[in-house]
């Protein structure tokens, strides 16, 4: 009798795990549609090989190599995939992590978050809400009031200098 119960419990546990797995996969669906849709051919034509690797294939540039890592001019950072404004220089800080870091997005809804379970970690991926381009990850260890650290690839963003009106 004990053995039967054990098997029953194990089966239930396994079923529960599988159920959970299915749910989070659905929440992290990669077939989300975005306002800016392009074919892979069009993305390849528009982006350099390394930009394509980061933005469309969720790659990561090597730390301390990006052009905006230690860049603190005043202006706006836009998506390199579709030119949508994503961050302002006011939210940028030096996180010493090797990638451009921001404590918040430029506006609510400009950046989407997705659960990322790759590389044996539980991380929150951030993507451009307009084109779905990969930006980096957001962490809860930010040193400023927001408590957030948006860790972004330089290759995913462009910089537009603040202009006098
Ligand atoms: Zn974009």
What's this entry about, in short?
With 165 residues, the chain is an alpha+beta fold. It has 2 domains: 1-31; 32-161, Beta Complex (Metal Binding Protein, Guanine Nucleotide Exchange Factor, Chain A), CATH 2.170.150. 24% of the residues lie in helices and 24% in strands.
What would you note in describing this structure?
By secondary structure, this protein is α+β, with helices and mostly antiparallel strands. It has 2 domains: 1-31; 32-161, Metal Binding Protein, Guanine Nucleotide Exchange Factor, Chain A (Beta Complex). Helices cover 24% and strands 24% of the residues. It is built from 3 helices and 9 strands. It has helices at residues 2-27, 40-46, 49-55, and strands at 75-79, 85-88, 92-93, 101-102, 111-116, 123-128, 134-139, 149-152, 157-161. The chain has a 6-stranded antiparallel beta sheet with strand order 3-4-8-7-6-5, with no helix packed on it. The longest helix is centred in the first third of the chain and has 26 residues, at 2-27. The radius of gyration is 20 Å and the shape is globular. Zinc ion (ZN) is lined by residues 79, 81-82, 84, 128, 130-131, 133.
List the helices and strands and how they pair.
Elements: H1 2-27, H2 40-46, H3 49-55, E1 75-79, E2 85-88, E3 92-93, E4 101-102, E5 111-116, E6 123-128, E7 134-139, E8 149-152, E9 157-161
The structure holds zinc ion.
